[in-house]
């Protein structure tokens, strides 16, 4: 297979788009086309003031990373502080509660199998009577 080598300016434009991620959303919304953006970038250059609104602020990027790392650290702390015996006891109690509820349903005939079984015996499609 032959590989196409892309023009160096296209590679530079791709790097520019990575630095300005809001351009992608503009194209996806249909407000801009890649060809238009490439031509503007080629003519105006990377440092033009018109590109500032498409640049993701460094503070926004850092705050997103901080939120992710903060969430992960809180999750790890919660896992470390968990008592395995206490969790096991809670699961055991929950299992017993569910079993009790299932037993109540089966005692009062509230299960799906019991209600459909009764209706089959009552409505026999071939009922014969003596004359």
TrEMBL record:
Entry-linked Pfam families: YlbD_coat (PF14071)
Top-rank lineage group of the source organism: Bacteria
InterPro entries according to UniProt: YlbD_coat
The protein, known as: Cytosolic protein
Organism field: Metabacillus indicus (Bacillus indicus)
Lineage summary: Bacteria, Bacillati, Bacillota, Bacilli, Bacillales
């Amino acid at each position: 297979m032959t590989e196409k080598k892309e023009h160096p300016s296209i590679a530079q434009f791709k790097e520019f788009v990575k630095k300005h991620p809001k351009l992608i959303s503009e194209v996806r919304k249909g407000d801009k086309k890649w060809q238009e953006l490439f031509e503007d970038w080629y003519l105006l250059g990377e440092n033009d003031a018109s590109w500032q609104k498409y640049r993701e602020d460094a503070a926004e990027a850092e705050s997103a990373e901080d939120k992710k790392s903060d969430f992960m650290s809180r999750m790890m702390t919660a896992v470390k502080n968990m008592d395995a015996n206490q969790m096991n006891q809670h699961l055991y109690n929950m299992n017993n509660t569910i079993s009790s509820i299932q037993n109540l349903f089966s005692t009062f005939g509230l299960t799906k199998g019991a209600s459909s079984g009764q209706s089959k015996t009552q409505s026999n499609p071939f009922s014969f009577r003596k004359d």
